[in-house]
Amino acid sequence: MENLSYYEILEVSKSANGDEIKKAYRKMAKLYHPDRNPGDETAEHKFKLCNEAYQVLSDDQQRSIYDRYGKEGLQGGGGRRSSGGFDDLGSIFEEMFNGFGGGGGRRQSRAPSDKFPLDMGVEMRVSFKEAVFGCEKEVTFTTKTSCKTCKGTGAKEGKVTTCSQCGGKGQVYVRQGFMTFSQTCPACHGEGTMASEKCGDCKGKSYTETKESVTIKVPAGIDTGNRLRVSGRGNTGKSGVRGDLYVTFEVEEDSHFIRNGNDIYLEVPVFFTQAVLGEDITIPSLNGEVTLELETGTKDGQQYRFRGEGISDVHGRGKGDLIAQIHLTYPNRLSSEQEELLQKLQESFGIESKPHESLFESAFEKVKGWFK
Predict the structure, then answer these.
(1) Across the chain, what does the average pLDDT equal?
(2) Cβ atoms of 144 and 235 closer than 8 Å
(3) Cα angle at 304 between 266 and 258, to 5 degrees?
(4) Are residue 122 and residue 218 in the same domain, yes or no?
(5) Which of 30, 87, 243, 314 is most exposed by smallest CB count within 10 Å?
């Protein structure tokens, strides 16, 4: 199982979609889970391999790199992003915005008396270039402000009555057989009170909405899933305290560069004669161009690493690398002159041009003996 591909480990095809991969993983995980195989080291090892395979194939970016470069492509630094939430950049970049007030510290997401969260989130899509080099972008969003007319109650003149359904408890109880369960009251939504009459300004919602915009400085090296906090631009509660705005980024893919953490991969087409001769070729990099010095006899899939030519770490911890992977190409057709030249070239190498003959010489003799 160690030598199997990730697709073979999960027993799925290379064209399997996300749901098929997830279903296959659950099946394999149940089969090899340590709790079902106590003391079985083989099962435990297979369980770890299933987890490793799923972590890669369930991540579109990791899967793309694996499909093109294999496991070696995933070892280039930068690592895998955790599937357990966002990389929150708020503590580092919260002051990197155009002027606005709102204090520094994090606030409660929702005060006990407010009917909506004070913090809010929006998504921002940025190009590959904008993510690599950083930029300024305007984001537009709609905020909620607790209605001043009804003091955030949703009731005319702020007059509320005890909820008739839950008796002011905010919870109702449902009996199923011999067990009793509690749940949030559907009538008052857990408030325990109800409006005698809806507020005319907010129509009983308890808040008004306002469209706003702010220009943020997107730091260089931002990646999909990174989240940046804008202090004091969230919703406003009854007390006047304002929450924060969280911007979650989605980075567009590039047609040539593939990102893995702070490293970038570039597939370089190389004609077979260039690989044999070991030519120097110029390839693009994020900062312009670099010279790729091919080794004589470069192989298909061989990788060349350019240190520090990758993406700047968003936390300021250096830069990643540029990894150029060779893709050998061959002529689609040969003219009679080219064919003659290649034939002469092959003959000039003598026995070296036919390595299979010496390799299989003993095998031929062995096979002949099978039919005597």
Answers:
(1) 83
(2) yes
(3) 20
(4) yes
(5) 30
Residue 96, token pair as written in the block: 């990197």
Residue 53 falls inside a structural domain: no
Cβ distance 231 to 289 under 8 Å? Answer: no
Question: Where does the pLDDT of residue 28 fall: very low under 50, low under 70, confident under 90, or very high at 90 and above?
Answer: confident
Cα separation, 314 vs 37, in Å, equals: 43
Per-residue confidence band for 343, with pLDDT thresholds at 50, 70 and 90: very high
Task: Please report whether residue 79 resides in a domain.
Answer: no
Classify residue 360: in a domain, yes or no: yes
| Enclosing H/E stretch for 133 | helix 128-133
Q: Is residue 262 part of a domain?
A: no
- Residue 89's nearest CA partner among 233, 278, 249 is 249
307 vs 326: CA distance, rounded Å = 17
Task: Look at residue 180 and tell me whether its pLDDT is greater than 80.
Answer: no
Which distant-in-sequence residues (6+ apart) come within 8 Å of 67 by Cβ? 14
Q: Strand 120-126 and strand 245-251: pairing? A: parallel
Number of domains in the chain: 2
Residues 116 and 244 in one domain: yes
Q: Looking at 42-46, 54-58, 168-172, 210-214, which range is the least confident one?
A: 168-172
Whole-number Å distance between alpha carbons of 41 and 53: 18
Give dist(CA 346, CA 328) in Å, integer.
Answer: 19
105 and 224 share one domain: yes
Assess contact for 310 and 326: CB atoms under 8 A. Answer: no
| CATH code for position 212 | 2.60.260.20
Tell me whether residue 15 is exposed, middle or buried, using C-beta atoms within 10 angstroms of its C-beta: 0 to 12, 13 to 18, 19 or more: exposed
Domain range for 363: 336-370
